[in-house]
Amino acid sequence: MGQKKAVTRELQNRYQKARKKEKIMILDEFTRITGYNRCYASQILGKSNILGYVQIGRKKFKYVKDHHQSRRKRNRYYDQEVLLALKKIWKEADYICSKRLAPFLAEFIPVLEKHGEIKLTRQVREKLFTISAATIDRLLADIRKKQQIKGRSTTRPGSLLKKNIPVRTFSEWDNTRPGFFEVDLVSHDGGNSRGDFIQSLNFTDIATCWIEMIAVKNKAQRWVFAGIKEIKERLPFAILGFDSDNGSEFINHHLIRYCEEQHITFTRSRPYHKNDSCYIEQKNWSVIRRTVGYGRYDTDKELRLLNKLYGYLRLYVNFFQQVRKLVQKERIGSKIKKRYDVAKTPYRRVLASLYIPEEIKMKLERQYAMINPAQFKREITKIQNQLYKANILKQNRDKETVLSKKAQNSFDYIST
User: Fold this and answer.
1) How far is 94 from 88, CA to CA, in rounded Å?
2) Domain 160-396, CATH homologous superfamily name and number
3) Spatial CA neighbour of 351 closest among 309, 303, 307, 318
4) For the chain, how big is the Rg over CA atoms in Å?
5) Which of 25, 65, 91, 140 is deepest in the core (most CB within 10 A)?
């Protein structure tokens, strides 16, 4: 490229001063050396960098145009108004990724407008309806924050009874029919596994990604079983399958007998293979951990706050959080190519299911029409703040207790 520019500068002046026959010869030689198109070559050789001359005293000076041409300026299609509206909508949608947010805007914006949470002009509204996922990523790149926090498992192996419960493989379940659930407990031990602490019981349906959660006092079988029964009453469809890990809170005679009476298929995952329960593990992080964090919760007040929080969270996630499901995975050499379906909420997946009765779908539609997602988001944030303050006060009391014990021990030692 540098040699071509040097040749161009060398021949440009000669070409502009030459006559027609000489120009033809110069142009032939120039196209042979550079490989340029003849029309393009004549254009760049005919251009002059000299814009004119200026007289200063008795001398003439020529001024040359700048080689760096300014880029053509154009108005931004997605302007500041679109960005401000997108930020607010993204916040109310709980900061979901662009692949889930883009197809959801056409449904989510009318819901926010219906409840008076947002007001958009016609131009901004039309632009948001046609915006792509890549454009959303570009617009929100400067405010997107990523955090990677990992916890540790507190699952303890169950008794020899687990030999009576078959290990589940994906070929044995009808993953297109709602009712087959993966179940797990999320520990809120705050890094200290001593004593009793609250557990979050999580149910995730494989077909629709419908999620239900409830906080229980600890991992005792009686509390876990009571939580399972309460979740069963909340669900919009029946439980057909029940898949858990190998913890003793699930692997017990009481739960096996209950599943047999209710005609529920009870299976378990392989030990130390967390990917066997990939649906529930993903929800443990994206729903529970992102909402309540990794603090230690072990008081009755925190238990009530968690269950109050989950009362709003379950509806917000099921009705207004898009989910993408893996539909195809293909290995090409050392790479794996994955294809996902269009992002839909669990609510929309339930409505699209042929196995759900119409009366249940109508009941869900009435419930959906009454929910204001922005109000639910505010309530969730409010309870999160209460939970955080309760946890801080408890930690301060614990520190004061420890300090007072140390002071008393030192006083007793001095007295003796």
Assistant:
1) 10
2) Ribonuclease H-like superfamily/Ribonuclease H (3.30.420.10)
3) 318
4) 33
5) 140
